[in-house]
Structures are given as structure tokens and as C-alpha cells.
Amino acid sequence: MPASYAYLGPEGTFTEVALRTLPEAATRELVPMVSVPAALDAVRSGEAEAAFVPIENSVEGGITTTLDELVAGEPLMIYREVLLSITFALLVRPGTKLSEIKTVTAHPAAQPQVRNWLKANLPDAVWESAASNADGARLVQEGRYDAAFAGEFAAARYGLEALETGIHDAENAQTRFVLVGRPARPAAPTGADKTSVVLWQRDDHPGGLRDLLGEFAVRGINLMLLQSRPTGAGIGNYCFCIDAEGHISDRRVAEALMGLKRICLQVRFLGSYPRADIEPDAVRAPLPGTSDDEFASAADWVARCQDGRF
Amino acid sequence: MPASYAYLGPEGTFTEVALRTLPEAATRELVPMVSVPAALDAVRSGEAEAAFVPIENSVEGGITTTLDELVAGEPLMIYREVLLSITFALLVRPGTKLSEIKTVTAHPAAQPQVRNWLKANLPDAVWESAASNADGARLVQEGRYDAAFAGEFAAARYGLEALETGIHDAENAQTRFVLVGRPARPAAPTGADKTSVVLWQRDDHPGGLRDLLGEFAVRGINLMLLQSRPTGAGIGNYCFCIDAEGHISDRRVAEALMGLKRICLQVRFLGSYPRADIEPDAVRAPLPGTSDDEFASAADWVARCQDGRF
């Protein structure tokens, strides 16, 4: 039996399409799961080698179910990310005309991306939420709704046709997916990498979060995501999911993480992995004074000072 | 006709219960709306004097629909907040036994708060999402599901009985609601106030967010919420919804907002209003050097210096 990747199912959703863009997916059995927690639990239990789940969306922001699963429970690590542009097709039973559509369905996350299109083209259609976009397509096939918003690729699977394609209210609507596995050594740096961590503050005081971010800033590290998530200890109690540019084997990143480890109540390392948004040769150079060489020669200099040999 | 408050309906949800704790609600007509955008649009159009909507939850974090509505569109302002402890009752048709329950329903937001209870007490029950907790109760009344999770107060309205009360996975589960109106002069400071703003960074560079937070930190202002929301310009493009301690008429807060106005691309003021979590006499004193008197005497001193009279 080949090693398997669990993913947020059902089949025929954007998640599956994104997963199939990973070369390593071709050699694995791909197993759809009913939910993000179920996909990640399959990894924790050893049932699956890895899980592939959405984590961020340019319209909705961080996918909180995924972030909360990575923040709590047995530690997991991110090994890959995939960016997928999201545009919807309006899927109908063959022959259905736009004027005949009284009911439409899709996953609730699709709604903000098709709202304007609906208002302009089907102002009187009644919206009902589906468990997933693929499930919405299935319900159209069964005759329960007149039309579903889903990826165009879902049409063939459910015997539907795309009455309209390329529907997206927000330009550049993208979803970011991650491949998550049990903790192990991160892949080697590619030159265009990202490091994800979760930070818990030691206490709540003016400037507390600013001080945490300072560990990145003083080392010239740019942040790509900062998403607060409730700790469960009541309103106003948050931990912070942070994506930073760079790899834990970069000295500036390693030193920032050491600084955070010293000042935070808790730090959870979620992995260093290749960025999907940029090629290594397009990554900007480190800020002056923050390259590995400069870190190394500064460490040498301090060592010489400690010996009185400056 | 009395002035009306729109609120996130339907009747019989936690939102209505929270709204009725406000003394001013007693003299208004309370109008349930189908969604948060609909409630806020009623204010923007002048149809309603104010809207009452959930904005933050200790289990789920910021309510993104509400935040996104306040971030974009015609500006609105927050005038009041209410904190409500959330515990669920399991509502059934009178006489139903726990062992007879095969299907349960509630709003999806209820699920993380009842998940453990369900696993322990009804491990085989099938969950179906409802449009609201009150709607779930109605569907139980109609016989479509066996049980609904909702506020205990919803039982009477739908002819149901509470088989179990006080269900909550997370201790101290609370939801924060806000009363939102058209922009006007904020209420006078009470001594325990909160100021809400939305910040857009001028550009993306290492330390950018740290610098924004520094405007609060150097003036001893504690933050109570920092929630990133997508700007719609693609993955990684965020603005920041921030709640800070204090009132815009406090000199430290006014000066922090001036600093942000200078360094941000855009700042949206969402209001200064009384905190619901603490009484004025329990608020800690400003950090040394950040009281109104100290700001005033420091301004005097600089003015004297400018005159050569120090």
C-alpha cells in the first residue's frame, strides 16, 4: 500500500485540485476526509503520512479551523504550501437557462466571492449553503437546487454544465493550502522560504506584542501573516500565528526564534518550507547587517572581544 | 414611531438577549435582520438608528463578517459594547429522552462549544447546521431534528424543553456585541473606555507592523484586540483591526492616533466607548509619564523651551 495523503474532501473541490499540483501527490494515495480536524487527526494517528488543508484565503483571511488545529493538540509541521487562484463557475443541469435559476448553493466561504455577481445576474435567486462546493454540485445533479457555484472542474464529475465561468468578486482571489506532517527535520532552504510559528505572550502589558514583533524587526525579517487566535481563556486572550520570511537555518531567523523563546510564555514551531509565491532568484536580499555572513563575522568579533583580541 | 435598533436576528438568539441588557433598548423598536450586513446597511441608509451585532467571541475570535463590514463601506462608529456569557441548552420536544436523540442542530458557531459534550453524551448523533440557533429550535419544533443547541431562553418560544443546560466546552465562553451607529461625537469618557481603529500600512517592510504598534506602546497604551483582515488585494495583504484601552479624549490615545495618522496609509476611527469588562474604579492607572496631566505639563515645557524660557 502506498503512503497516503489525507485532504479536506470531498473529491472535486479546490483542495484536491491544489493537492494534485504537488509532484509528490502523484505517488501517494489521496484520501478525502470530512473535515480539517479529521484530516489532521489522520496524520497524528499515523493513518496518513501527511494532510493537505486550506490555511489562508485572500478574501476571508486565515482559515480558523486549520489554524486552531495547528495551534493546539499534538504538534504538527508544515512542509509545503500551494497557492491556487479561485474563480467559480455556475454549474447547472444541462440545458438550464439563467432565467430558470431560482435557487443557488455552494459552501459558505464561496458566498463573499460571488455576492456581487449574484446581485447583478440573479438578484432574486435564493441562496442555501452546502457542506462543500462539490456537495453543492451533487445537490444540483440530484435536482435539489437549480445551480451551484464550484470549480469548473467539478462539472464533468457531476454531469453538469458551466453556464458561466471565471466568477470572482475580488481580483486575485487566492487560497493558500499547506501539506502538514508529523514533526521532522524541515526541508533544506531553497532561498525563498517561509517560517511559521505560534506565539503565546508571557503576560499582557502595553507594548507586549510590539516587543514580540521586535524580535523579527531588529533582524530585518518581514512578516507575511499575523493572525490572532483565542487561547480559550476568555475574551481578549489571544495567541499569534505568524508567518515570517526566511528559513530556520538562516541565522537571522534562528536568532529571532531564540529571542522569542526567551521572552514568550510558549513558542510552537510550525515549520520552514518553500514559498509558493516567489522564485528564489526573485527574493530580495537580506537587509544590510542581517545576512548569514554578517551574523557569523559579528559572532567571531564578539568572541575575539571576550578574549581581549579585538 | 420610536427610533429603531436593527439587530442580527432572528428573535430568540443570544444577540437579542445581549441587546436587551442595554437600558436604551427598552425605548426602541428592536428589528431582527437576516444578516450582519443587512443590519449595518439599515443604519447606513438611515432606516435604523443603530445596529447591534456580535464582533468577537472567546472561542472563535473576531467575527469576520462584522469586522469586514466596519472596515469597508460608508464609515460607521461603535457606541456601546456588551459581553454575554454563552452556555447552551439542549432543547427537545417535551418528553424526548436523551437516548432517543439521533439528530442535533445549531448554528455552525455553536459546534466548537458543544463538541466535547456531544462526544461524551451523544457520540452517534448526526449534526446538521442551522441558519441560527433559534432556527434550529424551530426545526426541532417542526420535527425535522430531534434536538437543538440554543440558549435556554429559546425553549419557551418554540414550545420545547431543556433536557440539559449549561453546556459549554470552553470555560468563560463569552461573546462581545457592539452597538453601531452613524459617525457622531463619541460619548464622554467614563474612565474605563476602549478605542477601536482600523490601520492600513503604507508599505510592507520588516518592522512595519511593529512600528504601528509602537505608537501605542510608547504611550503606555495596552491593546485588547489585534485582528488582521484581508484588504482584498491578494494573499498576504492585510489591514489591522485594533482595540486599545482608553478614550480618544485621553491625551495619550489622541497622540497615538495622530502618530498613526502620520505613518499609516489610512486610519479609520471606529469609536471610543465604555468597556463592558471592567468598572472605571478598577482600571489600572496610566503608566508613569502617560497621564493627561503629564502630557499637558510636557507640552507646556516644550512651549517654554521654544520661547527660551525653560
UniProtKB/TrEMBL annotation, chains A, B:
Q: Which InterPro entries match?
A: ACT-like_dom_sf (IPR045865), ACT_dom (IPR002912), Chor_mutase/pphenate_deHydtase (IPR008242), Preph_deHydtase (IPR001086), Preph_deHydtase_CS (IPR018528)
Question: Which residue intervals define the domain Prephenate dehydratase in the entry?
Answer: 4-182
* Every ACT domain range: 197-274
> What's the short name of a Pfam family annotated to this entry?
PDT
The UniProt GO MF terms for this protein read: prephenate dehydratase activity
Q: What class of enzyme is it?
A: lyase
Transmembrane stretches in the record are none
Identify the keywords attached in UniProt to this record, alphabetized. Answer: Amino-acid biosynthesis, Aromatic amino acid biosynthesis, Lyase, Phenylalanine biosynthesis
Catalyses which reaction(s): prephenate + H(+) = 3-phenylpyruvate + CO2 + H2O
What are its E.C. numbers? 4.2.1.51
> Which Gene3D superfamilies does UniProt cross-reference here?
3.30.70.260, Periplasmic binding protein-like II
Pathway-wise, it operates in: Amino-acid biosynthesis; L-phenylalanine biosynthesis; phenylpyruvate from prephenate: step 1/1
Q: What is this protein called?
A: Prephenate dehydratase
Look up and give the organism this protein is from. Streptomyces cynarae
